[in-house]
Structure formats: structure tokens, C-alpha cells
UniProtKB/TrEMBL annotation:
InterPro entries, sorted: DNA_methylase_N4/N6, DNA_methylase_N6_adenine_CS, RM_Methyltransferase, SAM-dependent_MTases_sf
Biological source species: Sphingobium baderi
Membrane-spanning segments: none
Protein name in the entry: Methyltransferase
Keywords: Methyltransferase, Transferase
The EC number(s) this enzyme carries: 2.1.1.-
One function term, GO molecular function aspect: DNA binding
Database matches in PANTHER family: RNA METHYLASE-RELATED, TRNA (GUANINE(10)-N2)-METHYLTRANSFERASE HOMOLOG
Pfam family, one: N6_N4_Mtase
Domain of life: Bacteria
Keyword set includes Cytoplasm: no
EC main group: transferase
GO BP annotation list: methylation
Catalytic activity: a 2'-deoxyadenosine in DNA + S-adenosyl-L-methionine = an N(6)-methyl-2'-deoxyadenosine in DNA + S-adenosyl-L-homocysteine + H(+)
Amino acid sequence: MTSNAQAPRNVIFNGDCIDVMRSFDDGTVDFILTDPPYVTRYRDRQGRKVANDDNGRWLRPAFAEMHRVLKDGGFCVSFYGWNKIDLFMDAWKAAGFRVVGHLVFRKRYASSARFLRYEHEQAYLLAKGNPIRPARPIPDVLDFPYTGNRLHPTQKPIEALVPLIEAFTQPGDLVLDPFSGSGSTLAAAQQLGRDWTGIELDNGHYHTARRRLASQRHHRAAA
């Protein structure tokens, strides 16, 4: 591979993120924003599942690769399943990430109701090395509009991701999402003028994300 291919920009890969990231050079990514499987065997009301949500074998090697490809002083924001936090925290710390913040995304609806009505999502802010503190830190509680999950069973709203990318990147920086699903992170990055790279294991979601990004580019060019 050429060095260009090892730091790909504005492309989505259909494959296993561990294998794909192994082809990237060290320290070529400015920011990672990702929503990995929560290891909860999730199934939505339509019966849709999330690939690799039935095991945690991928956690340690995936985050080890993310840490390697992230620039020193860079940040990673990772959503996680609250009832599997022990697995996620183990993987983050084993990879070398430092936990420097926690984010809560408040919903106006309950995604499920058991012992409580679950009306939020959550993510950790992870750092590689000693990053510079942002001039204007964003709140650690953000709104989470409902997407309807039309494109993916756990689709994240672009509106909740934009503030994170704005806070931790500059125009032209490279944003990576190794679990890109329907492409919400990539669409948010593209909307803000950042370069992006996505990786998605599921072939159907890969094609959804490609169409979504192409449509967004077309609308921006026509505007």
C-alpha cells in the first residue's frame, strides 16, 4: 500500500475494523467518534440486530488499533453499554487510553423501560497522551433528538455528534468511525468540513452509509 492508502480520507470500508485499521499508519487520525456494539444481544422491535453484539472478543483488539492510529494528544469519544462497562473500561485502559470525561445524551423518550425508564445514552471521552484542553469546553450533557432509527437499529442523530466534532477537531482534520453503521458520524464530519473515514462490517449498512454520504455531498454541491 502507498502511504496515501494507509491514511485514507473520505471513504467507507466494508470489512472488519480490526483488519482495516491494521493497514493504517500510526498516528494518522485526528479524532475518533464511534458507537460500537454494546455487547447486549440487542434486537429492536422489527427484529433487527447489530453485528458482533453477542460477544466482546473484538473489544480489546479494536481499541488497541484505535489508540495506535490516533495522533498523540488526540481524543476518542466512544459510546458504550452501561451494563457492560467493565468490558469497555478494561479494553480502553488496556489500549492505553486515559479517561478524561463522561458524556450524557438526554432523550425525550424512553428507549426501554424495566427497572427504570431508560432516557439517555452515554459515552466516555478518552485521551491519548496529554491533549491540549479546548478553549471553550462543551457541556457534558447534550440533547439527543430521536432519529426514528430508520437507517439503522441504533442510529445516532447527527445533531448530537456535531458539537463533539466541532469541539475536538479543526476543518480538514480526519475523523474516524470504525463502527460507522449508517454513517451518522461521517455525515456530521462532512457537514462540518472535516475529512472522514468509516468502517462498517455489515454490508447493508455499508451501502446505506455510502448512499447517505453521496446524497449529502450532492445536496451541498447543489446549494
